[in-house]
Specification:
Chain A: It holds the Pfam family MoCoBD_1. The structure holds two protein chains of two kinds. Chain A folds into three domains: 184 residues, Aldehyde oxidase/xanthine dehydrogenase, a/b hammerhead (Aldehyde Oxidoreductase, domain 3); 318 residues, Aldehyde Oxidoreductase, domain 4 (2-Layer Sandwich); 139 residues, Aldehyde Oxidoreductase, domain 4, CATH 3.30.365. In chain A, 27% of the residues lie in helices and 24% in strands. Chain A is built from 18 helices and 29 strands. In chain A, α8 runs parallel beside α9, α9 packs parallel to α17 and α13 runs parallel beside α14. By secondary structure, chain B is of the alpha+beta class. Chain B folds into two domains: 73 residues, Roll (Ubiquitin-like (UB roll)), CATH 3.10.20; 80 residues, DNA polymerase, domain 1. Chain B is 40% helix and 15% strand. Chain B is built from five helices and five strands, in the order ββαβββαααα. The longest helix of chain B is centred in the C-terminal third of the chain and has 20 residues. The N and C termini of chain B lie far apart (50 Å). Classes of the chains: A alpha+beta, B alpha+beta. Chains A and B meet through α1 and α16 of A and α2, α3, α4 and α5 of B. Bound molecules: FE2/S2 (inorganic) cluster (2 copies).
Amino acid sequence: MRYVNKPVRKKDAMSLVTGKPVYTDDITQGSSLVVKLLRSPHAHALIEEINTERAKKVSGIECVLTYEDVPESRFTTAGQSYPEPSPYDRLILDKRLRCVGDPVAIVAGLDEKSVDKALSLIKVKYNLLEPLLDFRKAKDNEILIHPEDNFVSLVEVGADNKRNLCSSESMNIGNVEEELKKCAHVIEETYHTKANNQTMMETFRTYTSIDAYGRLNVISSTQIPFHVRRILSNALQIPKSQIRVIKPRIGGGFGAKQSVVSELFPAIVTWITKKPAKMIYSRKESFTNGSPRHEAEIKIRLGADENGIIKAIHMYSLWNAGAYGDHGPTTVGLSGHKAMTIYNANAYKFDFDVVYSNTMGAGAYRGYGATQGFFALESAVNELAAKLNMDPTVLRMNNMLTESSVGKTMPTYYNEELKSCTLDKCLKKAKEMISWDEKYPCRDMGNNKVRSVGCAVAMQGSGISSVDVGAVEIRLNDDGFYTLMIGATDMGTGCDTILAQMAADCMDCEYDSIVVHGVDTDLSPYDTGSYASSTTYITGMAVVKACESLKNKIIDAGAKKLGCSVEYADFDGKSVCNIKNNESISLIQLANDNYVGSNNYLSASESHYSPTSPPPFMAGLVEIEVDKLTGKVDIIDYVGVIDCGTVINPNLARVQAEGGIVQAMGMAMYEDIIYDRNGRMLNDSFMQYKIPSRLDVGNIRIDFESSYEPSGPFGAKSIGELVINTPPPAIANAVYNATKVNIRSLPITGEKVMMGMLKNA
Amino acid sequence: MQIKLWINDKEYVDDISPDTILLDFLRSKGCLSVKRGCETSNCGLCTVLLQGKPILSCSTLAVRANGLKVTTIEGIQDEASEFGGFLADEGAEQCGFCSPGFIMNVIAMKNELKNPTEDEIKNYLEGNLCRCTGYMGQLRAVKKYLEKYSDMKKGA
Ligand code: FES
Ligand code: FES
């Protein structure tokens, strides 16, 4: 392998670092209508009257749209394969407003000033309804968020809009109650994780226009171009054939852009006016009406025998969908299925309710529910270790999946067979790297400072088994270079690059001989999109398959030219050779010949799906310093050791890991969407919603313990989401080891630590 | 009102409304590297140089640049590629949306601080947020880049 497992530069690196205009707003600089929304000031209300007459008269205003102007059938904005598990609970504009910021009217005009003026002239009479803001009270509350009759759930996920349920299910393996009775130790606690905003640096944005064929063209900062096509077709009630979606470079997504957020509004404006339109979300809008992580309350019962061998795990996840059900039924599933699977036990129980409330609708955020589940379960496991007076790393070694578990069926993971795992090696190496044995549990540094260490392990999946589809097409061009057409979405993650690395090794050619093409739904082969950690594993395999079939075609064509049979033709990346007489024809010659008077243009297209979703694993250990006088926690060192199978690009994988860990540090320590009594988000700017800066993250060190995943391309599994799961429980554990205070509700603020210490004293 | 300024050494005379923000003015003149990431002067994405000193163009009125020289990454492509190469070799430009502002500030730092310590580097660049990379790769790149210059000095 010349390129796989090498730190190759990203294909687009130099244009990004020299500031080239490659993002949505940069490539759509011509004149277009400015689109903005009038948003609801109320968390729960009905529009009784809306008067747009004066607004429409403002000079420069092209159109003002209200609920009367949009199609009446519901859809979901969640980017998922059809039929989507997320209920069809939205309209582009609705008479019923379900959270602060819900769109009331769309205004489009020539410039921002006229649009702002028009917005201020729209008169709305609201019928105020009592809001339901506490998701703990949502189930079977008499306040209904979605009383409408045309609410539909396409998939059986236990949705019931008359009970405020977006989804509800339960799973039983073995008899948890019986097992718990036999256990010497049972931890029974409730853990609470908050809604967090992805805060990708490029906010939501979309440009729409009508092309020469009268079709709607959409250029959007999205992770899911093909799903955008379907969702817009549902929302606007126009055929998919009338829509083309193009994805330029994206300034980050992290799951936020796995929902349709900014696309609907310029799309309907353009479809109605036939004029180009653009909508750019402000940072504030991205905060107040984005697609944040689901807030969750997870109850755990964890039972073990006197030696600390885990026997039973019961998790109940209560999940706040907020106003709309995007990704509700699916994220919640990961909180149990991913978290519990990492531990061997005799019995498991997992049940959940995903409820509607009058807070902002949630969505997908890196980790996709597993992050919440791991905070809860890993915290419980750490509490079990403390109860047994056991080193939590030792307790894990005795209970978790290890290299010797390979071949085992995982009952909580849809009975998939574990084919690769080095989690034990990861934990061992991480302990060495951070000098765990010398530092555990804590050291007094004098000066009222205590340094301590904390531990967590985690897994994720690689794609959604039997659902995600990745396809690529690879073409041989004249002069012998290849075009790799990819339907997966590079959102900065570097998938264009790693797929090209794989293709270069498959075709035995230079990395620079592979040119890649970003997603255009008219041109690219179908791909479900970049989410669920699917790209390397699923689309990567499609690359391997497509290259294999192109190689066969090259050999075929070469053999014909050489006048030999295919068995005797061999291709080494540069030429096809007749091994009987050493005659050969170069790839360049072959390629060029195929461009003149030939029926033999060589290209291959393959798609791939996987019946399994092999888990990557990670051990995360942290060292922190706690100030005993104030409760303030500083991160000193974070060590992550990862089994993502074969590492396709060590640089990109390392930066993925470092980035995910830092995001999770924010989640662990301060990121927290808070609402006032009326349901208005209070901290809707970077001033108030603090994300980690480079001064906040201490040192981070990453290493790999590669396994080989037989079903993955070159033995690879995923990495992108896994890396966000360990920091919250590891930091909570370190806080306990320093202070004997268990923080079970994120974020872990100095105040909570201090209050806990005072209570213990 | 009329203003006259130099963007990347090119003179511009323009009639603008007094509330025009420098960021928007620069983008309207084709400096599309300049990005906006917030409305509260917290992210650093919009960093450009005014008379060689880094400023936040999102919170600067265009008139403030009247008679002065503005530099964006479009005007220092060679330096940007040089440092950018270090960044690329770490894989530390992920989505790249924060890169122009970050790189402008790195270049300003290189001109301003002599042999900065790691803490000084972090402090200087603190205002440049990045949500993708976790900052470590950026730090590795900055150190290697600065090392190259201190090596050159040592060699000289
Ligand atoms: S745009 Fe955020 S600081 Fe200027
Ligand atoms: S690389 Fe994406 S924000 Fe920095």
